[in-house]
């Protein structure tokens, strides 16, 4: 190690190791038929890769040649929120692409720096918050000035070592990508699992063995209208000009989640003592959203509370023949199958009115079977929750792998160091001398340029 750098490495500014930098251009026209793909800040992913699920196209006449992208170019997001300024990706696509004014193109000097080596150097600098300190900040966005990007220094390895590092990174990060892709399937699988559990529960399949053991037939199930088996009540209007009484905490529909509640941000309104008594919430009450996501519901089980609820929520108090959780399961199952939409009113904004909810029809097994169904569903959902918790931890560990691998690479610990490699400092001085000599010899007859073979390294 020398000056904190691995042997043979040197510090170099971005301005020293790129042929040139070029900001992109703005264009109000987008999705032009037959136009040129125009990469924007949403196309630069936070993991150092291009994101191509939404690529705009702009008119050919506005796309000048100096905005063309070549394989090996590094795109840096130079206008965005302060946390996202500096995210970057390597361009390695076939065909013609241009880029927006929120991005800056860096074209590396390939005799000094490998394109991927430059990419990951800048990515680590972004992760460390280097660019945030260099930004000019406004209310909703920040911009990284040209000078701030050019003066950013990176650790430069000998060019042969760079190639070895990049080759190793491609293998390791490819495996990380594979892990991430496999992990992304887990939430989808868990969602389908929970839906399948509810479908089986509400059709009677989940407790078929239970009924067989007790000699009960599925035909013993009946149907019920909600108005016949429960009391329903909408909450209080949010009209502070008319409301009187003392400040009272209340639930909004955003506090009601599927089968749970988020109590971190409840509201406050004025209510009289009579209103508080009428709108109290007890254990076993089913609270159902009237709007927002109509039908979203949860059973209250937090004990006595001072909370009341707004008019965007229905409070349902079931009679003895209905288990509140069983009712919630049926509402969720019908929401999954879109059957619940038959009860909605409105075109653009959907609502589940009290009148419509009163006509909600659902199957009604015996109270004992309802309890058994609730027990089994909660046990299966608990298993899914455990898997989800393990998934969350695994995803966090995998997400940290990329940065850990890159940190190891840029400490010079990822690949072997060959003492015969030309040190980066010597390479910098040699290239600088050759370029100066070429410019001198080229006076009067045009500048002589080094022959650089620009290759794309796909991952």
Topology:
Elements: E1 10-13, H1 14-17, E2 18-23, E3 36-39, E4 56-58, E5 74-77, E6 79-80, E7 88-90, E8 98-99, E9 103-108, H2 115-127, H3 130-134, E10 136-137, E11 142-143, H4 146-150, E12 153-156, H5 159-203, H6 208-214, E13 222-225, H7 226-229, E14 230-234, E15 246-251, E16 256-257, E17 260-261, E18 267-271, H8 273-278, E19 286-289, E20 297-299, E21 308-309, E22 313-318, H9 324-336, H10 354-358, E23 361-364, H11 367-409, H12 424-441
Parallel strand pairs: 3-8, 15-21
Antiparallel strand pairs: 1-12, 2-9, 3-4, 5-7, 5-9, 6-11, 10-11, 13-23, 14-22, 15-18, 16-17, 19-20, 19-22
How would you sum up this structure, described in words?
- The protein has 459 residues and is an alpha+beta fold.
- The chain is built from twelve helices and 23 strands.
- The chain has helices at 14-17, 115-127, 130-134, 146-150, 159-203, 208-214, 226-229, 273-278, 324-336, 354-358, 367-409, 424-441, and strands at residues 10-13, 18-23, 36-39, 56-58, 74-77, 79-80, 88-90, 98-99, 103-108, 136-137, 142-143, 153-156, 222-225, 230-234, 246-251, 256-257, 260-261, 267-271, 286-289, 297-299, 308-309, 313-318, 361-364.
- A four-stranded antiparallel β-sheet has the order 2-9-5-7. A four-stranded antiparallel β-sheet has the order 14-22-19-20.
- The two termini are 31 Å apart.
């Amino acid at each position: 190690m020398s000056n904190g750098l691995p042997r043979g490495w040197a510090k170099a500014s971005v301005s020293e190791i790129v042929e040139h930098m070029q900001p992109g251009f703005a264009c109000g026209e987008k999705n032009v038929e037959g136009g040129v793909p125009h990469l924007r800040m949403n196309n630069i992913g936070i993991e150092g890769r291009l994101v191509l699920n939404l690529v705009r196209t702009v008119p050919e006449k506005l796309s000048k040649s100096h905005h063309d992208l070549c394989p090996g170019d590094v795109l840096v997001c130079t206008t965005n929120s302060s946390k996202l300024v500096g995210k970057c990706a390597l361009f390695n696509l076939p065909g013609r692409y241009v880029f927006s004014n929120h991005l800056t193109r860096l074209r590396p000097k390939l005799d000094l720096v490998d394109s991927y080596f430059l990419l990951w150097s800048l990515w680590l600098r972004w992760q460390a918050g280097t660019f945030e300190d260099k930004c000019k900040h406004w209310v909703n966005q920040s911009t990284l000035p040209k000078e701030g990007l050019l003066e950013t220094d990176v650790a430069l390895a000998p060019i042969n070592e760079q190639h070895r590092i990049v080759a190793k990174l491609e293998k390791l990060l490819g495996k990380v990508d594979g892990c991430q892709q496999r992990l992304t399937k887990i939430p989808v699988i868990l969602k389908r699992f929970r839906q399948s559990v509810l479908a089986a529960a509400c059709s009677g399949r989940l407790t078929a063995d239970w009924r067989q053991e007790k000699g009960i037939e599925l035909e013993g199930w009946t149907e019920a209208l909600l108005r016949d088996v429960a009391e329903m009540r909408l909450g209080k209007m949010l009209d502070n000009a008319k409301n009187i009484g003392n400040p009272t905490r209340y639930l909004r529909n955003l506090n009601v989640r599927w089968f749970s509640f988020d109590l971190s941000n409840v509201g406050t309104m004025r209510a009289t003592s009579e209103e508080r008594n009428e709108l109290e919430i007890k254990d076993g009450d089913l609270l159902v959203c009237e709007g927002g996501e109509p039908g979203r519901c949860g059973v209250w089980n937090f004990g006595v509370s001072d909370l009341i609820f707004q008019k965007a929520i229905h409070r349902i108090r079931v009679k003895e023949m209905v288990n509140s959780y069983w009712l919630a399961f049926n509402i969720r199952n019908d929401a999954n199958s879109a059957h619940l939409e038959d009860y909605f009113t409105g075109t653009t904004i959907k609502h589940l009115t009290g009148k419509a909810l009163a006509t909600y029809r659902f199957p009604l097994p015996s109270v004992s079977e309802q309890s058994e169904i609730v027990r089994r569903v909660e046990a299966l959902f608990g298993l899914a929750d455990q898997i989800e918790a393990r998934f969350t931890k695994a995803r966090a560990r995998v997400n940290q792998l990329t940065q850990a691998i890159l940190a190891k690479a840029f400490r010079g610990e990822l690949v072997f160091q060959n003492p015969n490699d030309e040190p980066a400092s010597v390479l910098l001085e040699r290239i600088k001398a050759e370029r100066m000599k070429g410019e001198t010899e080229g006076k009067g007859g045009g500048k002589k340029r080094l022959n650089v073979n620009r290759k794309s390294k796909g991952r």
